[in-house]
Amino acid sequence: MWLFGKGGTMKIKHSIITGFMGKLRDRFSEYHVDRTPVEKIAAVAQVKGANGVEIVFPYELKDLTVIKEALKKYDLGVAAVNVNIKAESEFVCGSSSVSTKQLRDKAVQFIQGSMDAAAELGTDKVTCCPLSDGYDYLFQVDYQEAWRNMISTFKQAAGYRKDIRLFLEYKMSETRVQCFLDSAAKTICMIHDIDEPNLGITIDVGHALWVGETPAESVCLAQTKGIPYYIHINDNNRKWDWDLIPATRNLWDYLEMFVYLKKFNYEGWVTSDMSPMRLDPINAFNRTIATTEKMIEIVNRFDSDRLFTMMAEGKTVETLQWLEDNVLK
Q1: How far apart (Å, rounded) are the C-alpha atoms in residues 213 and 205?
Q2: Average pLDDT over residues 297-316
Q3: pLDDT score of 5 more than 50
């Protein structure tokens, strides 16, 4: 999956983060209604083209037996378990990076528990976005100590079981003004320093856009360094992580990412991390998956060799014309 390849038809599996099927909140309002984890799974099953879920540990996985029965009932798989190491009251100032070993140990326990849950649910992925690990003010933290602590935390967690891969997700800001893992490059540096074989990077399209990255380049960086990647899809205005329906603001970025996913023979999950706060969730996720499938359809009918040959020859204007002829028709 991580080797360069050519040709063929790209096929991916679609999943949805279950939390977006329940009550959503921002600083000012609440949207939609509370749902149980089983009710959220049932809602995902109503979305056309949805093959599975990404589900949150520990809050949505308190009864694994019930969850497994619901997944079987609705014929849904599990793309990944999302381990939340920020929501506990003790974690508001950090979990993996803090100097207090007791808190770091609790974060490790959460990740280890999520790995066990993932194995029982039949997935080999745990994704973790350490959003409370960062800082709000200058002179607030010792950056070197925080980096070393994160390495220690994630190394211990990853070493717990090698059959589950731990994917680290980056984001520039929120809940902290500055998150330590804020870019693809820095996350890859972290993965290099942790030096465990079962690590990967979660590339969230919106997080990449917000921090000023080109999502396709972020994918290429991970591919070049031989680091497995897992994809979250959404969109924004590059000024905030709005989690909009994909390709509604940055269509060409979205399309280019799928060009490279095809080039690299990516056949994994693509997970909708889209927040339908003011939209009907079923309709919004229907649109998310339909738009993504349209991107894949376009990429699959491309003459990829022709595209990359023109790029290699420096024929920029001709390439843009070719793209217009093949996309805008």
Answers
A1: 9
A2: 96
A3: no
**What is the token pair recorded at 260?**
């490279």
**Which residue is listed with tokens 């749902």?**
35
Length of the chain: 329
Nearest to 326 by CA among 311, 314, 304: 304
- Regarding beta strands 52-57 and 30-31, do their DSSP bridges make them parallel or antiparallel, or are they unpaired? unpaired
CB 254 within 8 A of CB 18: no
**What is the C-alpha to C-alpha distance for residues 295 and 44, in angstroms, rounded to an integer?**
21
Between the alpha carbon of residue 15 and those of residues 49, 78, 270, the distances in Å are 9, 8, 6
Q: Is 168 helix (H, G, I), strand (E, B) or coil?
A: strand
* Beta partners for residue 78, in sequence order: 53
Q: How far is CA 138 from CA 134, 141, 142, 143, 186, in A?
A: 11, 8, 10, 10, 19
Q: Residue 82 forms beta bridges with which residues?
A: 56, 127
The tokens describing 96, both together, are 């993996």
Tokens of 37: 């984890």
Q: Do the beta carbons of residue 40 and residue 21 sit within 8 Å?
A: yes
Asked whether the predicted pLDDT for residue 210 surpasses 80, the reply is: yes
Note whether 214 and 204 are within 8 A (CB): no
Considering Cα of 241, then 242, then 243, then 244, what sign does the dihedral take? Answer: negative
Please state the φ and ψ torsions of residue 149, each to the nearest 5 degrees. Answer: -65, -40
H or E element in which residue 57 lies? strand 52-57
The residue type of 204 is D
Least confident of 8-12, 94-98, 240-244: 8-12
In contact, 171 and 204? CB cutoff 8 Å: yes
Domain boundaries along the sequence of the chain: 13-301
CATH number, domain 13-301, options 3.20.20.150, 3.30.420.40, 3.40.630.30, 3.40.309.10: 3.20.20.150
